[in-house]
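Worked Example 4.2. Consider the chain below.
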Amino acid sequence: MTMTHSKFIPLHALLAAGRPAAHPVCHDGERLLSWRMFAGRVGALSARFAARPEQRWLLAGDEPLAFAVQLLALLYAGKQVVVPPGTQPGALAQLRAAFDASAAEEASAADATTDDTGQDDSLLPSLSPVDAQVAIIDLYTSGSTGEPKRVRKTLAQFEAEIAALEALWGDTLEGATVVATAPHHHIYGLLFRLLWPLSAGRTFDCVTCANPDTLAARLALLGDNVLVSSPAQLSRLPELVPLATLQPPPRIMFSSGGPLPAEAAAAFRDQLGSAPTEVFGSTETGGVAWRRRTEGEQGDAWTPLPGVGVDASPDGALRLSSPFLADDAPWVMDDGVHLLGDGRFQLRGRLDRVVKIEEKRLSLPELEARLGEHPWVGAAAAVALSGRRQSVGVALVLSAAGRQQFAAHGRRATTQHLRRHLARYFDAVLLPRHWRFPPHLPINERGKLTHAAVAAMFTAPSTHHDDPSA
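Applying the procedure from the previous section yields the following structure tokens:
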């Protein structure tokens, strides 16, 4: 395993150990921000937080630099951090009982700006180390009941995962600036574009690249880089711009939040020489495994992150032990697993997506996987639909070959051909009766497929979602 670099500092000691005053921390969109300026802001704001009696503080905001400053200031003030699932007013209102005060409101009242000139390095703040086992960060995910679900983590859990990431990829990323299209207020973006760079002494970009033009401009400005993105964004990128025009190309592209379509991975391999590096995990478990899709029978296999152990539960679910969990108890996920002999594994779809259609059991992930095997299909999502009788609907993003067939032969011939393909594996009653052909699957900002949005496609006429070339 690669050792961490000498400038790697765990977050709990970052403001105590410090860095050289001129060390670049981030690019705020217009200029580089030095350690003197960053640490000065954290120190001043931490003192304000420490003087306040409130313990639970809401941390929400779309600006990565302000988010990072407020997060560290809260932790070094001994406060509990509450990170909502989104910054929309409704999301914040749902959590009103979970926090006592807003970090953004206190920060706006503080004069936390520090000029980068005319200051003596001896004035750099040096804050006492934080007890990483005690410092708490509450994250929230979308719960199955519609209410946000709290996931409590200690700073020590984050630090364990950051150390594993640095051990795995630190040498590859040395000297690169972290550029991102993924937001920072979910666990993946929080780790990869803020906390990991801060610990590793790696510069991060504060601009979230929402479109290819912005991404191209940031890469050209910042130079040597690594890209933190999502399947939704990466799968669309080859359709929007020639990948070779992204200069300089990222040393490595990270993707998390869902599987990257094989067609998109192939496009990156063909045009840039390497597929993105996908990271599999969840808010509850942290990172579990990674892969870089290659051509071949086991190109979809996952390799556990350093320190993570995987096996299969009696019912075939992925079971893991991990230093990123709160304790040593094994964690059983809702994902089916096939263990390979070399320590890697393949996922077999969500075990909680098994439905009954006219008394016959159907695994929706298996149906999606069989459709994904067909050369006309780029991505597939299946849902069970309720009506006079339950039936199956599928939304398909067609591959380039599939779009050609759709244009040449029409919708009916395309669906009949795909039904014949599925009939090799499923009883006739289980075959999809409803088909939609959108240009993209409905994926949220976290890169996750929303099955409720897939189901909503079938409440509208099929022509509303049948433009695969859009």
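The chain has a mean pLDDT of 89. The domain at 11-347 is CATH 3.40.50.12780 (Rossmann fold). Compare this with Example 4.1 before moving on.
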